[in-house]
Amino acid sequence: MEALVIRFLFSLLTSAAMAIRALRRKSVDLSGVLAGIPVMIVHMMAGYRFAALLLVFFFTSSKLTKVGEEKKRRIDAEFKEGGQRNWIQVLANSAIATILVIAAATMTKGEDRCLDTKDSRLVTCLIGGLIGHYACSNGDTWSSEIGLLSSAQPRLITTFKTVKKGTNGAISPEGLMAAAAGGFVIGMTFVLVGLLTADCTGNVAMKQLLVLPIASVAGLCGSLIDSLFGATLQFSGYCTVRNKVVSSEGPTVVKISGSSILNNNQVNACSILLTTLLTSIACVSIF
């Protein structure tokens, strides 16, 4: 019990320190901090490898958000300096993962496990889903941030016609490569931290390297799924007054694509959920 209390206090202090730093750098707003601290505590209590995946996603995405801010300011109608993610955005990108880490920690009693169906199919399913979750989140964010800086005009995923930057569902070669890279980084984090926290031996240890291509594919597919949902279920239009692409209809807005069924956070949550499920199935099949 004493060790659990110490771990909780360490998790609380670490999460608070990182949240304050993120708030000062405008990576999140106050509501994002209030939502993010409990999420981080849960991840750290469940396992340091889980916390590492969350941290890598958050810090790399925040860094990329700040790259080319002036250019993004001219393109993105919803641009916020530093990103300033609110509580809705935080939960859209972490709520499913938080449920998964709680379930995994309950099954393993806080012990880090290898991906190995011979040990436990359910644990492998849960951990695989977590990898897919953060690979999708990271890949999609990297794709969006890098794609906006591309010199070429993107193409709508449903028609492959060129559209204005900022259009929901638009893809570019640079963005797709960034998505795969974002997933790869999540996979690499899982493998490297696992060397310190998980007792994997023999063939099981070697098979953990398969997480690298799995996470890369999850990052790419997650971004493509997000783009497909964005192109069809999320509205995009060009505002002739602001001279920017917007996500809401209006008298001065000329429709580009999609319908006003889902907003951006809902699209993210749906693509994450689907990628999580697909990656879980892949990991149970492979491992």
TrEMBL record:
UniProt subcellular location: Membrane
| One Pfam family recorded for the sequence | DUF92
Q: How does it sit in the membrane?
A: Multi-pass membrane protein
Q: Which GO terms describe its cellular component?
A: membrane
Is Transmembrane included in the keywords of this UniProt record?
yes
User: Could you tell me the keywords of this UniProt record?
Assistant: Membrane, Signal, Transmembrane, Transmembrane helix
The record ties this protein, via InterPro entries, to: DUF92_TMEM19
Q: Which branch of life, at top level?
A: Eukaryota
**What residue range is the signal peptide?**
1-19
Annotated TM spans = 35-65, 86-107, 176-197, 209-233
Which family is annotated? Belongs to the TMEM19 family.
Protein name, UniProt field: Protein PGR-like
Q: Which organism is it from?
A: Dioscorea cayennensis subsp. rotundata
Gene for this chain: LOC120280367
